[in-house]
């Protein structure tokens, strides 16, 4: 089921934050959204998740308008990991992750064996099994971020929309998470991830959508979108492009344009 955006415009606080955005995102791929601060990345992800009102345009998943899909079904289809997801209750990690199964459970029914195993799989996939019995408010920022991702993955969504999931992770966990996102995409999930780091995007993404001032500067395979001209246009930076051992081209910012 493709996730398609057509002619999407969003106004917030009287200002046009997204302007005629169009893209066709495919399952089984990692799509990275990049752009300067305030360029509309989080707003686009919220629009993809059907969480905000649109001025114009459409977001469709498998041809159906996202905002018209029943919320429980939508929650099974789209896993949304917000930026800085805070937890307002002092739950055990296992309980928090189990909340990700709610869209699959019938009202008043306890967790099924499938629910239990999805929770364990999500904890394992995010390297948080050892934290399962800890209280969420005793975790470090990076641990909490991985547990929040586990909550979303426990819901086994068709699409994962993750807004800056690397922000509070150390380099080893960043690389681990990027590998995991690639693994999820290879298993068929559609993965959309907001990133800031150009090198990480070049390593992890199949396609890159570059935003500036709410407009799409480029939506193309990573190698094309993360090239000199689009990056100059989006960020106003010059990059040095360095090939890695696997032949990917890594853009390293070296100065302002
Ligand atoms: N509820 C709101 N009311 C008014 N303006 C808003 C609201 N939410 C976002 N904005 C503005 O919309 C613009 C885009 O915000 P958005 O959070 O989508 O940017 P972003 O690209 O994710 O930024 P960052 O890289 O800093 O996280 C910003 O200028 C922001 O100030």
TrEMBL record:
Residues making up the signal peptide according to the UniProt record: none
Entries under InterPro entries matching the protein: AAA+_ATPase (IPR003593), ABC_transporter-like_ATP-bd (IPR003439), ABC_transporter-like_CS (IPR017871), P-loop_NTPase (IPR027417)
Location of the ABC transporter domain: 3-238
GO molecular function: ATP binding
Entries under Pfam families matching the protein: ABC_tran
Keywords associated with the record: ATP-binding, Nucleotide-binding, Translocase, Transport
Gene3D superfamilies in the cross-refs: P-loop containing nucleotide triphosphate hydrolases
Function (record text): Part of the ABC transporter complex HmuTUV involved in hemin import. Responsible for energy coupling to the transport system.
Name used for this protein in its record: ABC transporter ATP-binding protein
Organism of this sequence: Sphingomonas canadensis
